[in-house]
Amino acid sequence: MTETPASSNSRPPQRFPVVVVGAGPAGLTVGCVLRAAGVDCLVLETGTRESVEQRPRAGVIEEPVVRGLERRGLAGNLLERARRDTACEFRFDGERHPFGYHELTGGHHWVYPQQFLVTDLVREYADVRGGAVRFGVRDVRVHDLDGDRPSVSYLCPESGHRKVVGCDFVAGCDGARGVTRMAVAGRARVARHDYGIGWLALLAQAPPSADRVLFGCHPDGFAGQMPRSPEVTRYYLQCPPGDDPESWPHERVWAELHRRLAAAGAEPLTEGALIEKRVLDMHDYVTEPMAFGRLYLAGDAAHLVAPIAAKGLNLALHDAFALGDAFVERLLRGDEAGLAGYSESRLRQVWDYQEFSQWLSELYHGGATGDPFRAGTALARLRRLFSSPATAAAFAERYLGTAARY
């Protein structure tokens, strides 16, 4: 249920065609698409601009997403500064198994930390394209989503007074715990999958030990290395869900990373200070549909993909492209087809990526379950990846991602 604002009997003093709740990658991209078409919108964000621009999150961006950003004039810094990954490496049975997906497909990944992308998008939206944005707002609420005069209200950080903004549409881009997802609780179907494992997410002030992503499939648990820059490396260690990051001191972390990523002929890991430690409980969810009246959900407000396959940021940006374009078609040309088909078309790709994440999880974690059968099948999958050209090609295509053709 959505609330009716106190001022619902009179037209709110402010009005925008679209109010975007959330200044993450999805929300800012929707805003940039709208401003490029000359459509006014307001972006509301509970965090400060500084905090939004500094949050370290994902960093692997698929080539179709980069091309989507490029077509919308949003990839300038990314194309200049991002590194291109053309191969990854699996380590199992004490051996190195390089996997050159560029050789198979001609494609590659781009590595560009999410906070850099968000900084670019904030600047493009607010400073270059003149988009309206309010940072640091509190107690955001959405109202009358099923009517033809929806609105969003919030507490102004300067005055403490509640402001009401009328609109034609609301874009819910405020994440898993945001108000827009809560607004459809009880109305949406939510499918959830819990992997029963955790990942200790680490950011180390140390150069990567290899110039590629490493996947360590070890009987004691998964380990991963994801280069972020010449000086900073992202690492992951499988751990129990809900584990305390403080139970992983420097010595224990590096001992486990060395052990789980060990392989014949491999360079030893370069250790460094751990500047971030947090435990991620691996789970997925999908909210269906992704549209409710005048509210359209995008990114983590609609679906969460565990970082197992590095698909979350990419799905969020695919959502934003589709939603931003659909808003423009509806508001400027009166064409409702894009908004009418938004939920169904986006959910097809969402479920495709969820299935791949689940398949990949068994590859990574099956050998550490303590179940001999799952360990055997996981090892069979790994061996087939390096013995069957058809399997390798299929994996490379899904690992690299596909354009949204749904």
What would your notes on this structure say?
There is one protein chain. The chain has 406 residues and is of the alpha+beta class. Helix content is 36%, strand content 28%. The protein is built from twelve helices and 19 strands. Strands 1, 2, 8, 9, 10, 11, 17 and 18 form an eight-stranded mixed β-sheet that branches. Helix 1 links the parallel strand 1 and strand 2 (41-45). Helix 1 packs parallel to helix 9 (312-333).
**Averaged pLDDT, please?**
93
Cα radius of gyration in angstroms? 22 Å
Through-space gap between termini = 30 Å
Number of helices: 12
Give unreliable regions as ranges: 6-11
Anisotropy-based shape: globular
Described by strand count, sense and barrel closure, the largest sheet is: 8 strands, mixed
β-strand amount: 25-35%
Helix/strand class: alpha+beta
What's the total number of strands? 19
Share of helix, binned: 25-40%
Protein name: 4-hydroxybenzoate 3-monooxygenase
Domain FAD-binding: 16-356
Pfam families: FAD_binding_3 (PF01494)
Keywords: FAD, Flavoprotein
Features:
4-hydroxybenzoate 3-monooxygenase; 8-stranded mixed β-sheet; 12 helices; 406 residues; 36% helix; flavoprotein; globular; alpha+beta; single chain
